[in-house]
Write a structure and sequence with these properties.
The protein is mainly β. The chain has 1 helix and 5 strands. One of its GO terms (molecular function) is 2 iron, 2 sulfur cluster binding.
């Protein structure tokens, strides 16, 4: 699971796949509430990053 944080959103867990499958894949992109999110396995931990660039 991962949580989403951002302007105007609440933080809550979201199931993006089975832990073992995410670890085996190394990295995946999933859609979470209409946003593309990169989920990656690095040094024993799972991390999630919003793929949207907020800089203008």
């Amino acid at each position: 699971p991962m949580s989403t944080d951002g302007p105007g959103s609440s933080s809550f867990p979201v199931l993006v796949g089975a832990r073992d499958a995410l670890i085996q894949a190394g990295r995946v992109v999933r859609s979470v509430n209409g946003r593309d999110v990169l989920v990656l396995h690095h040094q024993g931990s799972l991390h999630a990053l919003d793929l949207h660039c907020y800089r203008e």
